[in-house]
Specification:
By secondary structure, the chain is of the alpha+beta class. Helices cover about 30% and strands about 25% of the residues. The chain has a 5-stranded antiparallel β-sheet, with helices on both faces. Strands 2-3 form a two-stranded antiparallel sheet. Strands 7-8 form a two-stranded antiparallel sheet. Helix 2 runs antiparallel to helix 3 (about 55-65). It is elongated and about 75 Å long.
Amino acid sequence: MVGEALGRNYDSSETKNARTHEFTDGATEVSAPVDGVEQSIRDVLDAIRNEDDIEENARTLSQLYLDEIQSRADLLITVHYKKYDEDFAAILKTPYLEGAHEIDLSDSDTTEVFIENERVIQEETDKSVLYPQYDVYEEEMDESQAQLFQANGASHYSSYWYGFLKLAEKKHPDELVERGLKEQARESDTGAAFGSYREFIENGSIETDADSASSLESGDVTVRIAGRSLRVSLEELRESRNVQLARDGDQFYLVLSDIEPEITVGSGQGRKSVFADLDGIPDIEDVF
């Protein structure tokens, strides 16, 4: 389960359900009592990294999770693991196994319960936290950040999953673009974010906070043409010569260009090319 979380691509423009979050100041404030000792959330996570009373610290995290608004009563698995010669903590969430709330952790058969249900847990793990963030290229650890995954995060990235650890919100570029354009459309007399395509090309800024501005251009919008939908980034729509909107009278075109287009069937290792080469494709002058 931890290996699956480690293998995810965090903060990719193409992936909305795996993100790196910064801890807020609240994560270092005393708020999580463990055995009567007041600790911060960061203290609890660091204790798990150091294999210090994992059971009690896991119980504390579970209570913080249950106290969070809109949290789901599922099974949380808190673990210590080693990677890159460093110590880490992970929190994994999976739907409750039938009767899991009745498991006696002091019972010698507890291990057997998890072995019997191992396949179910692995296949249905829907959220995870890895702490701290580790940059495999720079070989650097950042204890001010944690990496989160949410299986349904592409359509709905739940705030309770980062809220109970006092992590800051992290918007995906697509979400920033959607929020900014919708707000501009609401304030516009035309009901659209921009008065025209020309206005967007010449001065198509979107109002946002300074921290989010750098991510905005990689956010996508949907172009629907000829009964098909294609998602392109604002940067591509505004600046790329490979993605062009054009018109001929009342007829509009979306022109995509590339020196090595791929036409395939299937996916992953089973993907196959439809054509051995692209000889025979007509010149653009013959099409238009």
